[in-house]
Give the backbone structure.
Amino acid sequence: MKRVVITGAGTINALAQDVPGTFAAFREGRCGIGPLDIRDVERLAVRIGAQVKDWEAEAYFNRQQIALYDRFTQFTLHAAREAVKQSGLHFCEELGLRAGVVLGTAGGGVNTWDENYRSVYEEGKNRVHPFVVPKLMNNAAASHVSMEFNLMGPSFSVATACASSNHAMGLAFQMVRSGAAPVMLAGGSEAMLCFGGIKAWEGLRVMSRDACRPFCANRNGMVQGEGAGVFVFEEYERARARGADILAELAGFAMSSDAADIVMPSRHGASRAMEGALRDAGLPHEAIGYINAHGTGTTANDKTECAAVADVFGQHADRLMISSTKSMHGHLIGGTGAVELLACLMALRDGVVAPTIGYQEPDPECALDVVPNEAREARVDAVLSNAFAFGGLNAVLALRRV
Amino acid sequence: MAGNVRDRVIAIIAEQAVLDVQDVRMDSTLEDLGIDSLGLVESIFAIEETFDISVPFNANDPSESDFDISSVAAIVAAVEKLVTDQKG
């Protein structure tokens, strides 16, 4: 088995349109959630979100590309360019033939669905643009990344709701570890902040109308976000031989299914995924200094997740830090694990743990060190990144400092 | 109208609980009837559609929502009030 390291990172989210800006926001505990600026917002009950503001697609893509790229694809390509540039890799000839890309998204081209449903149902038009299908399909982003960077190896998209990115990154990790590919791009994106995308979530009645306050006693639900995170995963010896800057090592990955309920989380399913990731990484429980929580800010998730952490870590649960950066960048649904992996990289590499902001009152059912409101300096040697999806599908990554 | 609201709310709850309307008592709780959180959200949706009203309810904190769901009688009373307030 080969060791796997991260040699490039890229993002766009409500906090910033690159990794350094996102790290700065994490350090400052800045909130990217605000009033939504979308069509028909006055017909929504939920009017806040972590929206990417001042996005100028024209600055990065030509007219023909924009005609083919839904917002989620644009975000993905923007993040992928930053990650590949940082890695210093060129996917020519042999490397291009073996390298691939695995990306997570829950909804794919939701804005494209929304705009075209409006056109045929609301406006009664009987004709749509010829590229509607290639624009909205879930694999569009992965395909365009493969085309832009000449990735001809294993490439596909993964949709497991809120765990999509973690499943995608876990699979890419396994491919590099097994030797199936020397380099993989991996991560995910989501862009569902449009009328239909929010209206659907409103129906579940789990959304907050004021703020995302994970682990806080008065939390009242989740807040949607949008954006992308993409990483370059590379075989360790290869990265070392070419003198690449190694951001962190991917040490382990585990998946589990609750096989229980379509929306309610399971303490047992979450525990099994965390235990599995530790076992896969060969890390003792005591090695974990930080967990990037799934931490959605719903009553059910946060108390279940804290109980699962207590089950897995026992007394060490009181010594580790656990924060939910969703309080800052919102819940990016299928892209969330990718953006949250950045908080893990920051903890391992810079020794700064991103906070859970908006924290007001302790909840006895979430009695862990949630790094309230202010980022904290600490030496962290190993971390977990949790993602627990609707449908009971869990995916946890373990990373360690190199 | 009041009796009508009661019958229709009971019919919605009975359907969700897969029970006959006679088996839904005014002092029953949703738990007694076997209605879980998803069933509750579906019932509220059906109530909104039936009466053309908007029900203030956040599943994260049912106890702090303005909509009292502690028993069938409480739900009926809450719906009657919302119908009066919102439909004049």
